[in-house]
Amino acid sequence: MLLEIFDPKAAPRPIGIDLGTTNSIVARIRDDRPAVIVDCNGTWLVPSAVHFEKNGKVMVGTDALRLAAVDAQGTIVSVKRLMGRGADDPETKRLGTFDFVNVSGGTPDPEGDGENAKTVRFRAGGRTLTPVEVSAEILKALRKMAEDELQRVGGAVITVPAYFDDAQRQATKDAGKLAGLDVLRLLNEPTAAALAYGLEKKQNGLFAVYDLGGGTFDITILSLDDGVFEVKSTGGDSALGGDDMDRLLAAKLLEVMHADTKTQAPVELVRLALDSARKVKHALTDAAEVDVVVPIKGGGEKSVRVTRDEFDALIRPLVERTGVSCRRAIRDAKIEARELDGVILVGGSTRVPFVKRYVADLFGKEPLGDIDPEQVVALGAAIQANVLAGSGSTDDVLLLDVLPLSLGIETMGGVAEKILPRNTTIPAGAKQTFTTYADNQTGFELHVVQGERELAVDCRSLAKFTLKGIPPMPAGLARLEVTFEVDADGLLNVRAKELTTGVEQHVEVKPSYGLTDEEVENMLMAALDYGETDLAARRLIEERVEAERVILATEKALIADADLLQGNERSDIEMRLADTHAAIARQNASQIHAAVELLDDATKAWAGRRMDRAVARAIGGKNLNEVETDVAAARGVEAHLHEHGGG
Amino acid sequence: MTTPLTDPFATLEIEPRFDIDVTALDARRKELVRALHPDRFASSPANERRMALGRSIEVNEAFRALRDPIKRAEALARKLDLPVGETTEPKPDPELLMEMMEAREDLAAAGRAKDTARLATLASQMREREKATIEGLTQAFRDPSRKGTILPKLGELRYLRRFLDEAAAFQELAEAG
Known about the structure:
The complex is a heterodimer of chains A (647) and B (177). Chain A is an alpha+beta fold. In chain A, helix 7 (242-257) runs antiparallel to helix 9 and helix 9 packs parallel to helix 10. Chain B is mainly α. In chain B, helix 2 (22-36) runs antiparallel to helix 3 and helix 6 (116-142) runs antiparallel to helix 7 (150-176). The model of chain B has no long low-confidence stretch (mean pLDDT 88). At the A-B interface, helix 9, strand 19, strand 22, helix 13 and helix 15 of A face strand 1, helix 2, helix 3 and helix 7 of B. Strand 22 of chain A pairs antiparallel with strand 1 (2-3) of chain B, so a sheet runs across the interface.
């Protein structure tokens, strides 16, 4: 009944989005099968290009890409490479054609430590933009495409390279939020691809996913065991892809287009060279040689012949870089290449014949390619969105992903101490205790880094946390217990507790590169200026959706697990349910929010009991030792304990 | 050093012992994660999602601890009230130290020469040695009269592990050219 009130038109349908460096795709489940969504022009491949006009108009996709040739500064391409990156990042400098801004959107930094200035911002069409805002425009365009077909879009799963670090993931999630999407989950691209293949083939075994996209390379080794997709290891290079091939080829073309090596080639000419290079690369997939006509600086044009052999020689060093990551991933998975049952190719760049041959040689078997390598990630994302929305018949599907890069904290002397090593299954967590080093020290700063290098400065800085309010006591007495949690999206959360007083400490998260929650909120507000959505209305919808979800789940559980209710829990819960219904009827966002929190509290203890029951059901009362054969012969530690009187 | 989140044996509901069947342990972990993974609670209220996340983490961490012989031994030794931790454990046998020093010199030489074959041989010899030490540790936990050998064997295992980690790093460097 409630659903009908808020769902006047169509039922919301989950979608899967592959937010790529060069192209993006949106897919959904149709007739139990994943399929890409096609726009009114019959295209499913949306170039990840955004054009900003002076009048505030924004264009995405093919139209934007066309304008890149005439207005390079106002058009942003390959923004994915800058997600979660700092302005002083070497990668940022490498992508030189944009007009980067080194100020924090005009707001002075209260701390004055210049932390915010690190976030990349570019100027385009008279606006100052972060990569998150640019990505949000791409996501909005995809959402629009999906709405045209599905009428109403439910939750979304957005894919990210497995090798993305915390800042890059957080930036992607923020972009989804900014685009007005309910982001159910961030999913690693190779895992999405494996999901699409695995469900299609229903085959158990060990697989490698070789994913060479426009801007990133990922290698993932995973096992498929009756619906459980478990990543064994992952590795890659978040700055290596087809764009680099284009750049190498463009540099060669520029030698002809701009013979004068003393001056730098103008931006527009570089753009033209890159366009030609991309076309040549595509043509060389089928042809052994290609002739391309390029303009010459100062007028005229010239025909250039590129053979496949030349191209192969040019890209060989790039492709060989992928081999290093592959061998490491195989070693991390503790397997041998010959044990693999299949190699899955993902990403447009795997269409390049030289790449295919290289992969076949590296793994000693012909790679699988029966699902379109460009669509496969979006298709997998659609499957997972469907599973998470609970509308799928694939309830037994479970994805177990890993942390791609080690998480550590900076210790005295600048050494990064690993707290969670790379390839740890997520969700993951660790607890560590710290102490004060000065008398009456009331604050403590923690620097969280991600990466494999020994020194913190060589790793990626994720965040600085300041723990405050430690009661004054002599040095070394305070004991700070810090808990790190990495959720299923690969995102980090930190909590801290002072053990001697038992006081839970407030943790101030100051992302080193990403945006703070406040900045994202401000961006949402700013979006109003462009007349897109009414923030209050949007907040009401969000609160209502969450409330509906909680009501539905609670009502279901009241029927299924009524026997686990204790005392007056039932009447309490029923009262809170009625309050929530009433708050929804009053259409008041803050009241709905408060009612849901009270309902949450009322169901907490009961939810714990229900989870215990779920666990008991899962292990079916089996004792692990019943599975073992030599129990009788062996003496366990309990015997030990007994004999030693507990030590 | 990080501290364990829970008693891993209790979290996975298994009897605390050293010689566990890792395949059965993996099956148990999968059963639990199937029931507790946050993806199973995607449409549940916030408190249940948080609870599922916390409990999934405990299961994953317990599995990670018990799968690894060193962490498994540490967890058991802690239960026996032995002073676990590299700073509190007794000093290693000088003979072992000498032997490890020589082995690591060999390894470093092979690493400098980028001799991948030699690196592989040294690593595989050390893995054999690791197997023997694990067997010794199994005996130490099984037989109360050998309780005193638990910590020395654990210390030895740590040295062997460090050697193997170093060997892997050298191999990676050698392969990268």
